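We close this part of the discussion by returning to an individual protein. The sequence in question and its structure tokens are set out directly beneath this paragraph:
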Amino acid sequence: MKWIALLVPAVIYALSASHEPGSWDTAELQGVPFILGISHPTGFPFYVLAGYVWSHAVALDTVAWRMNVMSGMAVAVACTAAYATARLLGARRLIALTATLWFAVTPNIWSHASRAEAQDVAFMCATLGLYAMLRWMKGDSTGWFVAAFALCGLGIAAHPNALWIFPALIVGAVAGHRGAARQRARAPLLVALAAFVAAILLYAYLPLRSAYVVARAVDPTQTLPGAGGGIFWNYNDPRRLDGLVRELSGSEFQTPAYLAASFNPIHFFSAPLTFLTDARAQYGTVGAVAILVGLVVSWRRDRRATLVLLLAAVTGLVFSVIYPNESDVERYRLLVPWVAVPFLAALAPRRFAGKPRLTDAFHALLIVLFVLAAAWNVRQHAYFFSHAAGEGGRWVIDAVRPYVGRNDVIVTGWLDATSLAYGAYVDGSLRERIVVSDNSLRLGLYELWARRHRVFVLLDPHGTKLLPGAQDFARIDDYHELYLVER
């Protein structure tokens, strides 16, 4: 059954993965691992390193598709962890499997599993870490305890969102030692914390790789005075201390302030409310009610394990609510539908008093309902399987290519810059172009670059109708105008 829980979601996600580069963060996370580059804060070193190996070992189709599929595989592993967790808490195989398959095709999970996301790898590590902690709490060896913290550290090295399961692991460590684990040897806490720190030290990749990129002049923006570290290759130039601080902290997005605010008790009430609304958004009203009932049943059966799961799902929700610099907040909430799997599976009673036939009938009813719910989701979101030619960021690559030649500079906002950088640095469709992401329109700087390069600025004419010091060069579409900076 566990192989079905892995393979069915993996096939669904692979079939719904696009073959073209996306835009925004997606195009960056499709391309940066392939060239072993440095992405936007916090750099996501484990994701980049794993993606480098994956995108070169799985030499099929486009690089974009490979990285989309890697994220899908990560979420498929998280599906397997959901199944295993439900089984660990006493669910029958078919109950756990059908609840897992329903989870796998909920809209938030499916949409993020079909495209490149650093959060998907962090999500996989977090779910495996929670499963490992529960295994230890149930009486298995201390190796599971160490693995839980190591996986949390790896998750943080993929994306810091995995940090939010750390309190749940601490609660599990305390509750497990006080409960079933009391008679066993004391868990090697220092070893577990050392494994946690060792995994986080993957962030050393950032300054080391940055120094190499600069020393070998790999980043083409190095020829542009004042450009700083270029996107894809050397974001924030973290070989320098100030650049490393910006890269690790996300200070340019005011992330530290919002992180601190998430510990303000005044915001805590938003977490359980968000859990309920998100459960309803993914499973529907009836499904959300079923999850709450299953939570109560699970609590009565095993309070410690239920507390760990619930705490892991809820802790990070406060930050996702108050952080304003995120246009896709749902990717911070992947654990909410995941913990629903063991809670839904808990709805199946282990036995009705002295009535095995009634128990079997109720189990069969739940299985049918879970399958029907999953089938309904597949039908409602079948468009995930459809991909138009030239979708995503491919169109802007093709549209700009006739106007911008080799050794030219293209300056544009982040949304399109990542697509263009994919064409310039990954698949060669914009070979030898230099792409700069800049929303500030620093024309004085561009004029300096124009002494050695032709410099184009691609922007939305609705937002900026006139660009002093540049001539209107070409209309790409109603929302993209190409300007040439005058020398």
